[in-house]
Amino acid sequence: MVTLLACVSAPTPEAEVPEMSAVDLLERASLDLRGVRPTVAEIEAVEADPDAGEGVIDDLLQDERVAGRGRDMWAEVYLTRTESYAITGSTFGVDDAAFMASVGDEPLRVLGYIAENDLPYTDLVTADWTMADENLAAAWPIDHPGEGWTRSTYTDGRPAAGVLAGNGLWWRYTSTDSNANRKRANQISRIFLCNDYLSRPIEFDRNINLLDGEAVQDAITTNPSCQSCHSSLDPIASYLFGFWWYDYTNPTEAVYYFPEREPRWQGYTEVAPSWYGEPGYTLADLGQQIAGDHRYPECFVQQAYELLLRRDVTLDDTNALVRHRNAFIEGGLTVRALLRSIVDDPRYRAGVTDADGYVPKKLVTADLLAAEIEDLTGFRWTYTGQDMLGTDTVGVRTLAGGADGYNTTATATTPNATLVLVQERLAEAAAAWVVANEPDRLFTVDFTETPETDRDAMIAQIQSLHLRLFGHRVSADGDEVAAGLELWQSIYAVERDPEGAWIGVLSALLRDPDLLLY
Predict the structure, then answer these.
(1) Neighbours of 230 (CB within 10 A)
(2) Residue 19: beta bridge partners?
């Protein structure tokens, strides 16, 4: 099967967007909302009654895997899933790789918990709890009830400010003395307001001596070009001195929040804490101010829209964004209400776009590719206990189009050579594993049939694989079945091994572009 990827210069007006088929919509929604392809039963239900697809989508939104997909999607925004933390897990007697993964997941787990339990999005920056597992509990001052990732609380007296009060975000975004939390303040603006100060065009005075600290500080407070950003950025930075670690590589210091250091802005920037002109005092004040800012839900809507459509928003999307913002607010600021609204969007459901019949497709991310292959075959590609598509230290995350949070900060949106190579190796390993360990997942034959002894069973098997993997039926006398039989016979002729021949057929199917584009 071959799928063409359409490239369009601007979104088609909503009124002119043709809708994809009910089965195609089911496939897209299933991958986006829960990270797996629809089951055969779900496909058959929609085939029998296309209108039933809306009810199936409602069921998808209640799936427990929605929280995990949310974490994976917003990992592209937070960029905390990195392997470059200054303090290792071995310092606290836990595995280094597992510890780094837990640190990066803390803020994402809070978001996932909010999504899973239909809590209002404002809890993300106002909650008096965090999410932690045994790795974080062994290292940080955390009361961790239960096992695995559970709702937990810090015990060092830090303010109630949701992810703003968690170590995970600030271990990822540290600060130097001269920077005085400004990088951290920009991350707050970027993540929660979709306003990245570093993307602003500025006219810089070349006469300023950047090696003179006093001259730089004077320019920040008096130069109009500098003030265009620093007048609003520096007051946000002043809220964050409770996380002012004199040595962020020192594990006895960098695990704690220091309320007594909150006034240290007086000796660094001399700018009092405030949120765009509204004064405050503590990190808890900052959380409440962000939660009350109209830009906060608007930014989350924009992020969700871009993550689900896999493209940047344009002016043509303004009406859609307003519509989804209203649905988000009317739905109690719950993540499910927003996702449902976007899945209903004509541009999300866009089908055939021109006379040539090209269909716009989205490229799977590295984590989505790993998840769909695992669901189909039961195989997860790991090495020394680490997910090969979720790490770069020993794995292939960036080669598979993923982001490492530092060197690569955006996921791939079009296929490339290294992604195809990763898909090839993953397909080969997954095909061999499922045949050897869980053949019932995909196979109805017992591996004794040949085209001569039971051609009908083999034809039915190839048809079944196409339906499960790609969500579409192929005819018994179609090209897909003929190609599958020919490949099986070619492989079988070499070693006379039926299982090996099926491994070859399945690995070829798992390398199909339709496993990358949806």
Answers:
(1) 20
(2) 350
Output the six-digit token pair for 374.
Answer: 């695992």
- The model's pTM: 0.91
Q: What is the DSSP pairing of strand 278-279 with strand 274-275?
A: antiparallel
CA distance 365 to 74: 12
Q: Which residues pair with 130 in a beta bridge?
A: 152
CA atoms of 468 and 48, how far apart (whole Å):
17
pLDDT digits (tens, 9 = 90+) for 73-115: 999 999 999 998 999 999 999 999 999 999 999 999 999 999 9
Q: Which of 50, 22, 26 is nearest to 38 (CA)?
A: 26
Give me the residues paired with residue 204 across strands: none
If residue 152 lies in a helix (H) or strand (E), which one and from where to where? strand 150-154
Give the C-alpha separation, 515 to 470, whole Å.
Answer: 7
Reported as type and span, the H/E element at residue 151 is strand 150-154
Q: Is 428 in a helix, a strand, or coil? A: helix
- How many residues are there in the chain? 518
Q: Are 180 and 271 in contact (CB under 8 A)?
A: no
Quote the CA–CA distance of 220 and 234 in Å, as a whole number.
Answer: 9
**Residue 210 CB: number of other CB atoms within 10 A?**
10
Q: Is 329 exposed, middle or buried (0-12, 13-18, 19+ CB in 10 A)?
A: middle
**CA gap 15, 508 in Å, rounded:** 40
* Residue-wise pLDDT tens digits, 406-440: 889 999 999 999 999 999 999 999 999 999 999 99
3-state secondary structure of 19: strand
| Category of 13 on φ-ψ map: left (φ > 0), alpha (ψ -120 to 50) or beta | beta
